[in-house]
Amino acid sequence: MADAKARQGPRCLHCRTPLRQTFVDLGMSPLCESYVPAEKVNSMEPFYPLHVYVCESCFLVQVQEYVAPEDIFSEYAYFSSYADSWVEHMRGYAEMISERLKLGSDSFVVEVASNDGYLLQHFVKKGIPVLGVEPAANVAKVAIEKGIPTVIKFFGEQTARELVDIGKHADLICGANVLAQVPAPNDFVKGIKILLKPRGVVTIEFPHLMKLMSGNQFDTIYHEHFSYFSWISAEKIFASQGLTLFDVEEIPTHGGSLRIYARHAEDDSKPITERAHQLHQREIGAGLMRLESYAGFGEQVKETKRKLLQFLSEVKRAGKKVVGYGAPGKGNTLLNYCGIRTDFIEFTVDRNPYKQGKFLPGTRIPIYAPEKIDDARPYYVLILPWNFKDEIMRQMKQIRDWGGKFVVPIPETKVFD
Ligand SMILES: [Zn+2]
User: Fold this and answer.
1) How far is the CA of 239 from the centre of ligand 1 (A)?
2) For residues 47 and 58, what is the distance between their CA atoms, to the nearest angstrom?
3) pTM exceeding 0.70
4) How far is the CA of 16 from the centre of ligand 1 (A)?
5) Per-residue pLDDT tens digits of the chain, which is 417 residues long
6) Which of 13, 44, 57, 311 has the most other CB atoms within 10 Å of its CB?
7) Cα 349 to ligand 1 centre (Å)
């Protein structure tokens, strides 16, 4: 089947148009969440092309499905609860949306890709019935132990029908950072259409393509993220399944995200807001409906690599110690694309005990607990999850005691004295 697919050439995940226009080609990269345990550090690991296209018909920016989602998400290393500001962000969301939709004990909230229950726990505390849908058994288990009902499944048409068959219909379907990870976006949105009550609301958060482009955030591209959405491309996909986007919030998470609000196309109780119209117009203004606008991104990415390598070469030549902070997926894209290994960065640290003692995929940089930085007293700490840089610089401010400095690689290499 893979051969037949290769002969046909890649096609758009949404509209099946053949994909011809490259958005950016990041070369060969391992799966960025497949941390390497110590016992496998001398074994090989698979690398897959990280070649991103833009569809000339619907403008969906996308990576081909080279790896089955079951191989990526059945044991997922990302426990949402390890990032304080993310947990706080979702607590704020739970407050806001419960108030806005007047949710109560007779409502039903479904979260798709509910992870370890970091969001649904806030609804549970308010006495609002919830259900999480989460394909990664290891993180779902943590949620279930916290008392958050969770089914271990991928979400799509089939799962939605199974839930409807047992009488479940949602007043609110929410998801954060899941839409990008869906290899069949039409099926996913169709599932939402089926599960949503006639007057229900959907909110989905995803990193905003317009911000990815303007902020040079190419490291947020990985095999686990198949699609990169603009408002316009999301609008097309939801419309194709009978759902209308009627409101939007622009939020700072992951370097700039959208929280879109959707409803049934037939539900005229929720008019399309002014800010939704305005964002649509701004994206047109930014050229997101013209193929040429996407063509220059690849060159910008190459220049970012050259600048980061130049910085690291200079400081290493001067004999300065550099370590990393964090072991996020985005760090793995960046390090593999730039070819940065222990020759530049001795080690990295992460608060997530699941990652400690393992090695970064591809680059095999060891991951330790954050305390390791206090022993090593490096001159530079390269912050890989740059979207959490303020939080990390606060938590690690002691590095200034020995003259240490923070460096952020994106949108461009920048030292914080
Ligand atoms: Zn398309």
Assistant:
1) 14
2) 29
3) yes
4) 6
5) 445 555 568 999 999 999 999 999 999 999 988 899 999 999 999 999 999 999 999 999 999 877 776 666 555 555 556 667 778 888 999 999 999 999 999 999 999 999 999 999 999 999 999 999 999 899 999 999 999 999 999 999 999 999 999 999 999 999 998 998 888 999 999 999 999 999 999 999 999 999 999 999 999 998 888 999 999 999 999 999 999 999 999 998 888 999 999 999 999 999 999 999 999 999 999 999 999 999 889 999 999 999 999 999 999 999 999 999 999 989 999 999 999 999 999 999 999 999 999 999 999 999 999 999 999 999 999 999 998 899 999 999 999 999 999 999 999 999 998
6) 13
7) 39
The DSSP output letter for 159 is: H
Q: Compute, in angstroms, the gap from residue 122 CA to the centroid of ligand 1.
A: 37
Query: Residue 17 half-sphere exposure, CB side, CA atoms within 13 Å?
Result: 15
Q: How far is the CA of 60 from the centre of ligand 1 (A)?
A: 6
For ligand 1, the distance from its centroid to the CA atom of residue 288, given in whole angstroms, is: 13
> Cα(22) to centroid of ligand 1, in Å?
13
Question: 225 C-alpha to center of ligand 1: Å?
Answer: 16
Ligand 1 center to 223 CA (angstroms)? 18
Residue 236 C-alpha to ligand 1 middle, in angstroms? 9
CA distance 127 to 108: 10
Distance 171 CA to ligand 1 centre (A): 30
Q: Is 369 left (phi over 0), alpha (psi -120 to 50) or beta?
A: beta
State in Å: Cα 390 to ligand 1 middle.
Answer: 37
Q: Residue 133 and residue 3: Cα distance in Å, rounded?
A: 33
Q: Find the angle CA(266)-CA(267)-CA(269) to the nearest 5 degrees.
A: 145
